[in-house]
Each structure stands twice: as C-alpha cells, then as structure tokens.
Amino acid sequence: MPLKYSNQRSIVHHHIVLKPHHKWILGGAGGIIVIFMIALSVFTYTSFVRQELNYNSLDKRLGDLRTETQKNVNDISSSLLQTREELGSLSSDIGDINKEFSQLKASVGEDFSGIIEDSVKAVVTIRTDFGQGTGFIITNDGYIVTNAHVLADQSGYLATGIHAINYGGNRIALEFVGYDGTLDIALLKAQGDYNSLNLENSDDVQIGEKVIAIGNPLGLQFSVSQGIVSAVHRQGTNGLNAYIQTDAALNPGNSGGPLINTNGEVIGINNFKIGSSESLGFALESNYIEEAVNSISREILGQDLL
Description:
CATH architecture of the largest domain: Beta Barrel
Low-confidence stretches: 1-16, 89-95
Strand order of the largest sheet: 5-4-1-2-3-7-6
CATH topology of the largest domain: Thrombin, subunit H
Oligomer: single chain
CATH superfamily of the largest domain: Trypsin-like serine proteases
Largest sheet: 7 strands, antiparallel
CATH class of the largest domain: Mainly Beta
Strand content: 15-25%
C-alpha cells in the first residue's frame, strides 16, 4: 500500500510542477516573439519612412520637370512667334501654291500653261532691311541675279541681312558677290542646288511675241502678269539702247524679276516703268544680263559664269 501511495503522489507532482529547463524554453520563445514583433514594427516603420521620403523626392523631381518643361515650351513658343513676326504675312501671301498655279495657268492661256509651274521654282523674293524685290536663279549651284537697286537704300548704301524666300516659303541666306551700277545688275549666291532659268538671245526677240513677268508687286509673292513685247532696244536712263518695252504690268516689287517668253526662257530682267503708266514697263535685255554677270564673275571669281 505505501508503495501505491508513493506512486500516486509522484504522478500528481509530475502534472503540476514545471522543471527549470521547461521554464527556460517557454520564456525564450516568448522573448523571441516579442523581439520579432519589435523588429517587424521597426522594419515596417522604416519602410514607410523610406517610401515617404522617396515619394517626396519623386514629387519634387516631377515638379522640377514640369517647371523645366513649361519653360522649354514657353521658349519654343516665343521663338515661333518671333520667327512668324520676322516672316510677316508670308504664309498668307503665298497661300495655296497649287491652287494659284492653276488659276494663273488658266488666266494666261495655253501659251504659258506648262511654263509657269517650272519657271516659278527658279524665282525668289529678295528681302533686305530696306525692302524687297525679286530675283531669279541662273545656275543650278545657286547664283542669283537681281537689280542692284533692290539691295540699296535711297542713299546708295548696300543693305545688310540679305536673304531670299523661294516658292516653297523657305528662307535662304544670300551672299553678295558684286554688282554693275551702269546696268543695275547685282549677283548673289545661295548655298545648295536649285532649279535655274536659261537666258535667251535677246537679239532674237520679236515685237508682238507674248511674255510673262514673274515678281512680287507690292509685296504679293510670285504674282504673274501677261503681255507682249511692245518694242526692243529702247533707251534707258543710262543712255543705252538695251531695254525691251512691254505692256505686261510691272509694279514696285517686280524689279529684278524675269521677263519670260513662251519657251520658258528669260529675255529680260524687269527694271522700271515710266511714271504711273500701266503699259510702259521696261526690262534689260538678256544679252546685257549675261554681259553684266560675266563681268562681275570675272572680276570676283576669275571666270565667266554664263
């Protein structure tokens, strides 16, 4: 019996008493859990702070980019407005080139129906700080002829900032080569390759043959007027019998533009008109144009150009 009691007591003691190593195990596990929870909280907070800092930094960068982009847009807008102001009303003046070509070809008839579109590609508006006129390209590598008075002010001083506007509305920088004051011819140079117009032998020009004048009368770009040759070898203000008389309408701005025959060749360069008369225009004959151009090119370039 005592033995039985002892065993029972031992069993009861086993269920209610924890040994030291058991306490250590449970206490260690709880500490680990607490440490883990603290570490997790610290990590979560640190991640949140880092994300907040990254967000603020990103927001600041986006703000800077928006400011920089807006500045660039403003700069571009200002440049476009300045360019538009410099070119003036060029776009509205030129308008729809194809539509204007069709109207011009219809107005001048079959004699020039296939010529205007080709010829106008070699005609340019000459612009300076004093005003504007017309010129035309005489070689494929960009030599341009115009009237010398187009490039000078009333005191005879040469203009600065000379440039051309072609039929497509493109601005082209020009280099002044030289001029002939007696024949009122100036030679200019543009860089690049271009369509050009050929000069006809003006000795072959016949009174009564049809002609067209291409120019920029009163600032109206690439206008075409039609007429006939009224006379040849007329005397000009320089005393030379070197001018074709035509009834094709010529106005300020036509100066320096070509007078073209039905073969699409230049027979003269439009130079002046008498007073307010509407049918008394004069163009320097093409043989004199060639003489002046070659004289200038020999002096400046050391060789004939035409």
